[in-house]
Amino acid sequence: MSLQATTYLVVGLTFALYIGIAIWSRASTTKDFYVAGSHVHPVANGMATAADWMSAASFISMAGLIAFMGYGGSLFLMGWTGGYVLLAMLLAPYLRKFGKFTVPEFIGDRYYSKTARIVAVICLIIASVTYVIGQMKGIGVAFSRFLEVDYNVGLVIGMGIVFVYAVLGGMKGITYTQIAQYCVLIFAYTIPAIFISMQLTGVPIPQLGLGSTMSGSEVYLLDRLDQVLTDLGFAQYTTQARLSYLNMFVYTMSLMIGTAGLPHVIIRFFTVPKVKDARSSAGWALVFIAILYTTAPAVAAMARLNLVETINHPDGTNLVYAERPTWVRKWEETGLLAFEDKNGDGEIVYAADPNVNEVTKIDRDIMVLANPEIAGLPNWVIALVAAGGLAAALSTAAGLLLAISSAISHDLLKGVFKPDVTEQQELLASRIAMAFAILLAGYLGFNPPDFAAGTVALAFGLAASSIFPALMMGIFNKNMNKEGAIAGMVAGIGVTLLYVFQHTGIMFIASTSYLGDMQPNWFLGIEPNAFGAIGALVNFAVAYGVSKVTAPPPEHIQHIVEDIRVPHGAGAAVSLDH
Amino acid sequence: MSQKADYWKANLRLITLCLAIWFVVSFGFGIILVEPLNSISLGGYKLGFWFANQGSIYTFVALIFFYANRMSKLDRAHDVHEDKDV
After folding, report:
1. Which tens digit of pLDDT belongs to each residue from A269-302?
2. By percentage, how much of chain A surpasses pLDDT 70?
3. Cβ(A197)–Cβ(A305) under 8 Å?
4. Which residues contact residue A201 at a Cβ distance below 8 angstroms, ignoring those fewer than 6 apart?
5. Which tens digits make up the pLDDT trace of A61-101?
């Protein structure tokens, strides 16, 4: 069977599985499905959270970025896992105790202010839309390759599928569908990694293979990679920092606190049965996430080595362009990989020196998808990777779109502007909001500001600078008042957006950047994507300062805070009511 | 009331301990001290690189379960657990 037919078959089968499970669990339960969700074991909830969380950025993009960033790419690994520690200790149990539907709802109640709720909604929408752009980029890349069309066509097809998928709706809330998606995703990620680790090192566990010697040799894989890259003039893989250690530090911190501040992740912990379960569920979610995240660096290093050796063969010869493998031809069609035979000798050379290098374009996002083809793995493995990438992108995109639409319909429309809105109107409003979000994210996806993981990283910076500090102070500082929280959120996200826009353009349109995306202009050499941690600091400082010079919160708010600090008295799990 | 206050203080102490470890394995070993640690090898890994790529993640998982476990005990010791609600 051809690769394309196998891909259609595997992708089709997995989609049939998700939809089948969705219909089956709907049919067997009633309205109280979400309450029944309280019988879901924390392990199962953790697995579903992992599927919700791991997006196209984790699946498709991250290993590709690490492959080219080397040690510097560790900031994604630490940043996107370390946030769960913060979530488990600083937010999840208390928000679960408080027992409300959405994140802006907590902020609105805790800070006894509709204004605070509206500000939280706006911050949530900015962060989530940015996040969806990253998903769209990933989906576009996956479709362009497997349908063998241009990236832009792939993106439009992806937008259509996300729309149908998200509007089908409730699917997001169905834990069992997400468990199935997690299984597809993790098999699709680890199986090629196991194959490749076996090929290169003879060790079937990629985490160990990365630290092992090459098959039939005494040389460690990482030493070999360092050697091959430095010979070509690239930076040494294992020591190549991302710009500077300070930048890495701030970037990692942004991703960690952003993880804890992203509404679609936090919501998952509102529906566990007990406060106790909110803590352990975060642990289980991280276990399932760690399986992918500890495999990713192995995938990254091995893919880079395979790529280099496909072009510059270990025996000293180079790739003859006319004899290039099929996977190279296919990726050239998408426009995401390009060569230029500069010296006209019919051979391709890959090198750091731009005058010698003939690999003129290699989009980082193709690495994970191309990896099994580069390693010559069977078609079903390649098809499985496509299915896994789509599962990751779709589950996260749907989750985010639901968070966006519920913020607009539940928090803005019903909560603030029109409390007497009917259920149908609320539903209609949420669908319209969802469609707008897809169109906007899709439009920006035609010219994404960065690679998928880079775009997503920006979303974390925005969440880190606005939502996380407001939530944390709401729990840990009894005296934080509405003036402080609002001023903090506005200042935090404002500073971050200003910094990002001035360097990468207003709404990421490059021509509108007024300071230029140039390193010398960066504050302390910190790149825009990493700025969320600084924004969060500004948020904390402004909030604290303002709360000191304004009236303290009313007595009953202080009692609420005391109450959410203890597990005792938590009611039944609440549900998202739409 | 002081029961609750003691519980909260114990919780804050535990969080401080856990976050100190969280900081040391990732920001400490993975970034700030990565160069000196890289002179030590762990199989084919340089140690600093290993912490940044693998070790910090394993530690995070262990930390959350450690915290969850200790908090369940604290909940009971201070009589603020949920089971008495039922």
Report:
1. 877 778 888 888 899 999 999 999 999 999 999 9
2. 87
3. no
4. A209, A212, A213, A214, A215, A221
5. 888 888 888 898 899 999 999 999 999 999 989 988 887 77
Looking at A124-231, which runs of residues are DSSP E strands? none
Confidence band, pLDDT 50/70/90 cuts, at residue A8 = confident
Between the alpha carbon of residue B70 and those of residues A276, A527, A548, B4, B63, the distances in Å are: 11, 39, 35, 16, 10
Q: Which residues face A320 on adjacent strands? A: A347
Choose among B4, B19, B57: nearest Cβ to A81: B57
Q: Which residues pair with A541 in a beta bridge?
A: none
**Which tokens go with A156?**
């439009």
Selected residue of B18, B41, B53, B85 to mutate for chain A interface (largest A Cβ count, 10 A): B53
Q: Tokens 């942004």 — which residue?
A: A254
| Residues of chain A positioned with their CB less than 8 A from the CB of B57 | 77-78, 81, 290, 293-294
Residue of A nearest to B45 (CA): A211
Q: Report helix, strand or coil for A78.
A: helix
**Angular region, B44: left φ>0, alpha ψ -120 to 50, beta rest:** alpha
Domain-wise residue ranges, chain A? 3-310+375-564, 317-368
User: What counts of helices (H) and strands (E) characterise chain A?
Assistant: 24, 4
CB-CB under 8 Å, A213 with B38: no
Rounded CA separation A11/A9 (Å): 6
- Which tokens go with A382? 């390649």
Question: Which residue matches tokens 């294992």?
Answer: A238
Q: What is the pLDDT of residues A139-164, one digit of tens each?
A: 787 777 777 778 888 888 888 877 77
* Number of neighbouring beta carbons within 10 Å of residue A286: 29
3-state secondary structure of A98: helix
For residue A35, pLDDT beyond 80: no
> Does domain A3-310+375-564 match CATH 3.40.50.620?
no
Claim: this prediction has a pTM higher than 0.80:
yes
Q: Name the minimum distance, in Å, from the CA of A572 to any CA of chain B.
A: 10
Which of B34, B51, B49, B23 lies closest to A69, judged by CA? Answer: B49
A43: how many CB neighbours lie within 10 A of its CB?
16
Interface check A572 vs B, CB under 8 A? no
> Quick one: which of A155, A161, A131, A144 has its CA closest to A449?
A131
Confidence of residue B60 (pLDDT cuts 50, 70, 90): very high
| Complex-level ipTM | 0.94
Sequence-separated (6 or more) residues with CB below 8 Å from residue A475: A90, A91, A94, A95, A561, A564, A565
For B18, the closest of A89, A213, A248 (CB atoms) is A89
pLDDT for the residue numbered B71: 92
The burial class, CB within 10 Å (0-12 / 13-18 / 19+), for A150 is middle
Alpha-carbon A121 to chain mean position: 20
Transcribe A11-37 into DSSP letters. HHHHHHHHHHHHHHHHHH--TTHHHHG
A10: which residues sit within 8 A by CB, 6+ positions away? A380, A383, A384, A386, A387
Give me the residue from B18, B43, B71 closest to A211, CB to CB.
B43
Residues A117-130 as b or e (16 or more Cβ within 10 Å = b): bbbbbbbbbbbbbb
Residue A523 banded pLDDT, cuts 50, 70, 90: low
* Spatial distance between the Cα atoms of A295 and A279, rounded to a whole number of angstroms: 25
Number of helical H runs and strand E runs in chain B: 4, 2
